[in-house]
Amino acid sequence: MELRINQKAYQVDADADTPLLWVIRDDLGLTGTKYGCGLAQCGACSVLVDGNVVRSCVTPVAGVVGREITTIEAIEADDVGKRVVAAWVEHQVAQCGYCQSGQVMAATALLKHNPAPSDAQIEAAMVNLCRCGTYNAIRTAVHDLAKQESA
Amino acid sequence: MSNRRFARTAGWLALACLVAAGLLAWYATRQPASPFAQEQAASVDPSQVSRGEYVARLSDCVACHSLAGKAPFAGGLEMATPLGTIHATNITPDHDTGIGAYSLADFDRAVRHGVAPGGRRLYPAMPYPSYAKLSDDDIRALYTFFMHGVQPAKQPNIPSDIPWPLNLRWPIALWNGVFAPTATYAAKPSQDALWNRGAYIVQGPGHCGSCHTPRGLAFNEKALDESGAPFLAGALLDGWYAPSLRQDHNTGLARWSEPQIVQFLKTGRNLHAVVYGSMAEAFNNSTQFMQDEDLAAIARYLKSLPGDPRRDGTPWQYVNADTHQDIPGAHTYATRCASCHGLDGKGQPEWMPPLAGATSALAKENASAINITLNGSQRIITAGVPDAYRMPAFREQLSDEEIAQVLSYVRSTWGNHGDAVDAKAVGKLRGHTDPASSSPIILQMR
């Protein structure tokens, strides 16, 4: 089957029910996307599919054929993604960094759908887990981005 | 009335009572007839052992009589009844603690009539009202399998904790007289062989009605075959709602084709749904092992059972929904559920089931929706391989209120029209259910 990832076409040989995450990491070597829980609970594996945040560990690869997949490797090619990464650097969000590619994806998807989210909407959307507890830094960075937009 | 006449009347009355008690004692402990009563054990035919093993698969004996990691069929599964806790028994051929001393006739009386040697009545947790339909040939094969295909295991049965006098067994004989027919399945000449085979499996060994048929006040299944409208019409049991298997649009199989029913029973999933709750166990241990022609027969039979629009309600149709509503249930759905089930509620068939049009979102009974959200689903194991995707348990992550909100959202979006879910109902189920195991559980039969 053919997958479009980061504006590039890839030929993939996988069972229909293989999680997209395995294809991205193991078959294509795009290891910026991380495996956390395997149950769509933590969000470390988040990628964008047609601009929506998707947990690739629970996404059967057959379901994303013909759709536009974006991983952390190419997130800065996206205007919103680029601003998110800049805010992440400015606020020095990452600690160990394992969850951060997923956090960036979640923030990017949120701001693409809603450039000026309310506090409650940010709370509701930024639910990826971080075992270092960088939640305060994440919140500050996203609030900052939301403020830039509404200003 | 003179004293003498009074004494005489009382005497007759006492005698009548005595006779009645005697008759009752005889009735309640009598050995039902068995066609095998005169049969001597024949030499063992290996093909009979494997045939019996297949009947044991159809009948899903292992689900109750085996525990994970323990000797196959040594018993032990705890079952809560309204009266107290009972445990499934050791049905290995061990002489002292199992059924090793059973003759074929003893075995037949236990399986088809719920009567153990000596006349003791089994609790109808053993689905003998269904197994009564088993053919003589299947009973004989099943017996051969248990005697020669199963390893004897010494494991004493665990007594029930039902208090006296509720633990007396003889009243069950009266229950049986009213609610447990004893006839084997009789093929309907008006139907073809496929339909009849399906009816036999569904009513008999498959004992589908044990979960899917509503029960009456005496805990009896309200119908045991297609002659009764409540047969397989959906029922609440053990914290799960077993949906209708009739032609009901919302809560039944009207939207499922025969091949889709076969696929569901064979692989645990299809475009409409994925097995969960008690059905995941029935799939793991029983339906996936059924032969394709038997599955086709089941599908044919189920598709012949008419639905009831009055019970089922307005037929569901998909309705586009505003997926960014600013209500708590919608937020929770978007962040916790949509990764798998989709913002549009359509899921990722056939791997992640749709919630739009799902029975759990349309049925009046909301137990399954709450239970699966609190506790997640157990691993579905197809041909020995655990599946890649399963529903996680949210009991530690979401409060009763949050679960009620998100389920109320799911049950009122995309055309779904189940009632709103109350936080109290979530709390109640939270109290007496446990999260599903994340480890694959395989019950061995040999």
From TrEMBL, chain A:
CDD domains: fer2
Pfam families documented for this protein: Fer2, Fer2_2
Single Gene Ontology MF annotation: metal ion binding
Domain 2Fe-2S ferredoxin-type: 1-75
Superkingdom assignment: Bacteria
Endpoints of the signal sequence: none
Keywords associated with the record: 2Fe-2S, Iron, Iron-sulfur, Metal-binding, Oxidoreductase
Coiled coil: none
PROSITE patterns on file: 2FE2S_FER_1, 2FE2S_FER_2
Protein name: (2Fe-2S)-binding protein
Organism name: Pseudomonas fildesensis
UniProtKB/TrEMBL annotation, chain B:
Binding site residues for heme c 2: C208, C211, H212
PROSITE patterns according to UniProt: CYTC
Cofactor comment text: Binds 3 heme c groups covalently per subunit.
Segments forming domain Cytochrome c: 47-150, 193-306, 324-414
Binding residues for heme c 3: C337, C340, H341
One Pfam family cited in the UniProt record for this chain: Cytochrom_C
Cofactors (names): heme c
Protein keywords: Cell membrane, Electron transport, Heme, Iron, Membrane, Metal-binding, Repeat, Signal, Transport
Subcellular compartments: Cell membrane
One Gene Ontology MF term: oxidoreductase activity, acting on CH-OH group of donors
Binding-site residues for heme c 1, renumbered to this chain: C61, C64, H65
One cellular-component annotation, GO: plasma membrane
Listed name of the protein: Alcohol dehydrogenase
